[in-house]
Structure formats: C-alpha cells, structure tokens
Amino acid sequence: LGGQADYFIKPKTVEQLKDVVRRCNENNIRIYVMGFGSNLLISDKGLRGAVIKLEDEQFAQIEFDGEEVTAWAGAELSKLVLTCVEKGLSGIEALTGIPGSVGGAVKMNAGGNFGDFGAAVESVTLMDGRGNVFEKSKPELAFDYRRTNITAKFILNARLKLNAADSEQIMRTVKEIWIYKKNNQPLNTKNSGCIFKNPRGVSAGALIDRAGLKGLQIGGAVVSEKHANFIIAE
C-alpha cells in the first residue's frame, strides 16, 4: 500500500544516524521517521524526502538490569512483552496484541483497555533534527491518551521500570488479553492497528460501524468487517 519515498534509509548505528541527519539537513531533504508501520497509511503519491527506519541490530536491543529494562526503538513490541514475561517482569502486559515498534509505542503512548505504555517509562533517550542526543526523565515526560510531549525527531530507546512477579501468572494475564483481542480484532490479517483515536466517551470503531463503512475498500485498503477501527491490506 502507498507510494515510494525518494530515499529509504536504515542506519546501523547511532553514529550513522547522526551522519544521515546531517546530510539530509545539508541537502534540504525532509526527514520522515518510520517504525513498523502501525497506525500509518502512506499516499499512493509517495513521499518527497527520506524515510528513516531504525531496525538494525543496535536499534533492536532489549537490555535487562534487575527490574529495569532498556528497550531500543527498533525492538518489536510483542518480543519485548514476551521477553519480559520470560524474565518474570510485570508491567507491560497491557501491550499484548499491539503491533509495532518500541519507538512508535512510546511516541504515541500505545495501549488500550488494559493500560498504556507510559506507565512503565522512566526515561527516554532522544535525538533531535540536528543530530543532538539527549535524555528526558520521568518528571519531564507527559503521557496522555495516545500522545506524549516528546517532540524530538527520533526516540532511540526507553528505560522501563517493571516489577518482579511470577512468570506463569504474567503469562496467564497475557493469554487472557490475547484471547479477548483475538475475539474482537482482526489480528490474523495484515493490518495497521487501530487507526482513529476514540472521541471522549465513545468508540471510534462503533461510530465507523454506525456509518455503515465496514468493508469499505479504497485501493488495497479495507475497513475491517470484524472491527471498524482497523484498516487491513487486501
């Protein structure tokens, strides 16, 4: 789905990312940051500029230090959840079944009925549009419904504070959330996750359903018959 960008770049290290940012600035090339494509639809006309994706080994690390976890932006959210279950660390089970990368999940404070990512975030390491790297700690961060006060161009990693717990009990919670979502969401399809934010007091999916738009197709994008706030790829 969607058109092509002028440039698609996957730097391998933070230093390479700094160099890419510098070159883009020198040549007046607009920068777009892409996670795993959740909540994202790209115009068939494509993008004029450079799309940067942080997915190489350095950017996919998950590091453990007791009850603290440093998750890099390119780590897969589902892998982070399951790895924490294996380590007996509780606090992000609510992210079960949510597609995407850690960076994107932090930026939009991913979550749902069971809780949000921001509750576990202690600090984030960021890079601005000039290539400067800096950190923001919990008192400087604000997490709200599907938004944060993070304005930096790149999220490099997030440090999480979790709680030691019984792995089997955490896994039971994860399975309960997964079953609930599997019964109510099109998890077995190629989809971009929930697209629209819920207006206060009402479900966006219910509004789209009431408008009779389930099954609506434009090109290869289709409004899911199972949950109207999901757009799936035909």
Account of the 3D structure:
The mean pLDDT is 94. The protein is globular and about 50 Å long. The chain is α+β, with helices and mostly antiparallel strands and 234 residues long. It folds into three domains: 5-53, Uridine Diphospho-n-acetylenolpyruvylglucosamine Reductase, domain 2; 57-164, Uridine Diphospho-n-acetylenolpyruvylglucosamine Reductase, domain 3 (2-Layer Sandwich); 186-233, Uridine Diphospho-n-acetylenolpyruvylglucosamine Reductase, domain 1, CATH 3.90.78.10. It contains five helices and 18 strands. The chain has a five-stranded antiparallel sheet with strand order 4-5-13-9-10. It has helices at 14-26, 77-86, 102-107, 167-184, 204-210; strands spanning 5-9, 31-34, 47-53, 62-65, 68-72, 89-90, 111-112, 115-116, 121-127, 133-137, 143-144, 147-148, 154-161, 163-164, 191-194, 217-218, 221-223, 230-233.
Largest sheet: 5 strands, antiparallel
What is the CATH domain class of the largest domain? Alpha Beta
Order of helices and strands: EHEEEEHEHEEEEEEEEHEHEEE
Low-pLDDT windows of residues: none
Terminal CA distance: 9 Å
Q: What proportion of the residues form beta strands (DSSP E)?
A: 25-35%
Whole-number mean pLDDT: 94
SSE topology sketch:
Elements: E1 5-9, H1 14-26, E2 31-34, E3 47-53, E4 62-65, E5 68-72, H2 77-86, E6 89-90, H3 102-107, E7 111-112, E8 115-116, E9 121-127, E10 133-137, E11 143-144, E12 147-148, E13 154-161, E14 163-164, H4 167-184, E15 191-194, H5 204-210, E16 217-218, E17 221-223, E18 230-233
Parallel strand pairs: 1-3, 2-3
Antiparallel strand pairs: 4-5, 5-13, 6-14, 7-8, 9-10, 9-13, 11-12, 15-18, 16-17, 17-18
